[in-house]
Amino acid sequence: MKYKKIMVTGGAGFIGSHLVDKLLDAECEVLCLDDFNDYYNPALKRQNVQQHLANPAYRLVEGDIRDKEAKELIKEWMPEVIVHLAARAGVRPSLSQVELYQTTNVAGTLNLLEAAREAGVKKFIFGSSSSVYGLNKKVPFSETDPLLKPASPYAATKIAGEALCHTYAHLYDIHIVALRFFTVYGPRQRPDLAIRKFAERMLQGEEIVLFGDGSSARDYTYIDDIIRGVIAAIEYEGDKYEIFNLGNSSPVQLKDLVAAIEKVLGVEAKVRRIGDQPGDVPITYADITRSKEKLGYNPTVSLEEGLKIFIQWLRGKRIV
Ligand code: NAD
Prior knowledge:
The chain has 320 residues and is an alpha/beta fold. 42% of the residues lie in helices and 18% in strands. It is built from 11 helices and 13 strands. The strands form 4 sheets. It has a 7-stranded parallel sheet, sandwiched between helices. Strands 7-10 form a two-stranded parallel ribbon. Strand 5 (123-129), helix 6 (153-171) and strand 6 (175-181) form a beta-alpha-beta unit. Helix 7 (194-203) packs across helix 9. The radius of gyration is 19 Å and the shape is globular. The termini are far apart. Bound molecules: nicotinamide-adenine-dinucleotide. Residues 9-10, 12-16, 33-37, 39, 45, 64-66, 85-89, 104, 108, 127, 129, 181, 183-184, 190 line the site of nicotinamide-adenine-dinucleotide.
């Protein structure tokens, strides 16, 4: 790795903890800032950082990206790169907690950008989302598509975060890459996300709830592919502001996802169907031409392979 001193916000979460694994393997010094909030069981986040704590190159600070202490921390530690992954990440909860999503995802991002500017940090990676494409009818989604149809407060906060990133890259001496992640899955996946939720319930013989008629589609992307994309973005030396899709470019319908999980688990799902959920979009589908060309990003893990690894991990946790 070209950079050796990297701060990861949200480094106790699903994607963040995998990134920290790789950065420590690459002998980087890592500062993790995470508030261990209870959006999902914080004990899972404690497990995610357990191995990191044994590494002397790792420092954990429990704190909030919105606080002035976060700014002071950046000035004191002076990272070469900030990878900003901390966020309120659920689509549906964002409808009932609009203010929390706004202060965390927008004001929190602004606080970090200001700190980066004041401290002279030269590189900032922003964890954005496929949700920014909202009700975009054109598929696959490409980075140049207009973003005027977000379908949830969460999506709107990620668009606002990207706008702030563009502003800071334009005005100041800081290179910024916004990465639009498409439904990420794999070991340590967030418990509120479909694959994990379904698999856990199916293993316990409980019913699963499907929204809509099963035709909605997501571009499920395996965590190792995502992390290779994040590392490439850290090393990227192109324009001052860039946006990249990190997806699998192979959308899967909800009913096919359930069938794939059934096959890997060897369990038939008990399905209950209810209507579409407000905030959800019908499809996500990444055009990865730009990420391939400029980042060398090339996802290699198929849904079937990824599910096998994930289920093996889940069974190892002895949840049944
Ligand atoms: P996660 O919830 O597992 O990780 C986020 C971490 O941020 C958590 O550990 C949480 O405690 C921390 N955090 C939240 N608010 C904080 C605050 N105010 N101060 C400090 N720490 C705070 O989520 P994830 O799935 O790993 O997502 C990581 C990032 O990627 C998020 O920005 C999310 O919006 C984005 N993203 C994820 C997906 C996905 O499929 N997982 C898809 C698109 C975008």
